[in-house]
Amino acid sequence: MEASVTNDSEFGEGLKAGISIAVGYMPVALTFGLLARTTGLTLYEAVLMSVLVFAGAAQYITLSLIAIGTGAFEIIFTIFIVNIRHLLMSASINEKVEEDTPWKKAVYAFGITDETFTVSATKAGRLTTGYMFGLCLISYSSWVLFTGGGYIAGATLPGVVQQGMSVALYAMFIGLLIPSAKKSRKVFFLAAFAALINSFLTFAQFSTGWAIVLATLLSSIIVEWMMGEEKNE
Question: Which of 119, 151, 145 is nearest to 132 (CA)?
Fold first, then answer.
């Protein structure tokens, strides 16, 4: 009985800790739903992507790849590269959470994002399964619900505005890139090399999807090699 009360308390604490994340997800998920509509996805497809993927950056990148007609394999491979950091985040959280059955770990591991990782990693002391369930549940629910809300809200916008929203996807990426590039030379060089390599591959008549995949991989390798050389000097 005491264990059940403790679990409920930890679950509630996780819910409270995730409220700020849920609120922060609201505008991003609404925008994703709206852009998914202008990209040509159905309501079912947009919501299902949030249900199964639950990764904001990956979903936005997927929309941009779908918009330019990229194949399924190239999309999956690109998203794998983008989200490979989740392996490290999950391994780190696993060291901090109490031992539990593998299926329970698998459930809350699905809910680990940059935001839920930050909140859980900075919490003092050991983490419980109940806390992780609460934290991930409220964050996940917010993302999925507001994705659907954004898609539905998009139907009320005039047709001209809906068509113009297709440009907003690229504007958003530029808006995210410029501040990061100003703060970090690595981000600047990554973006510059990726753009150059992608342009060269496109000129060489590579498919759009593979050009993006190869540009991402090659620019990452080149920049890491360059930065590594600088540190060693």
Answer: 119
Q: How confident is the model at residue 162 (pLDDT cuts 50, 70, 90)?
A: low
- Angle at alpha carbon of residue 41, lines to 35 and 46, rounded to 5°: 75
Mean pLDDT over 1-12 rounds to 65
d(C-alpha 226, C-alpha 162), whole Å: 42
Residue 193 amino acid letter: F
Q: Give the list of residues 6+ apart from residue 73 with CB closer than 8 angstroms, or none.
A: 209
Separation of alpha carbons 107 and 170, rounded Å: 33
Query: What average pLDDT does the segment 37-49 reach?
Result: 93
Candidates 136, 150, 108, 149; CA nearest to 22 is 136
